[in-house]
Amino acid sequence: MPIFEYTCNQCKQEFEKLVFAGEEKNISCPGCNSKDVTKKMSAASFMGNSMGKCATSSPKGFS
Fold it and tell me: Which residues are in the Putative regulatory protein FmdB zinc ribbon domain (predicted)?
């Protein structure tokens, strides 16, 4: 369930939206409720080198 960035073509507000499968066509601007929105191109972000480590290690004090 990725978070996408959008720009409203009516009021020019920029916003982020958590998009579930099948909801791509039901995105509306939180400012003016227009469905005339454009998905922005954005870079992916990852949390450092933690990819794949969360299932194999635990914080100190937890076992």
Answer: 1-42
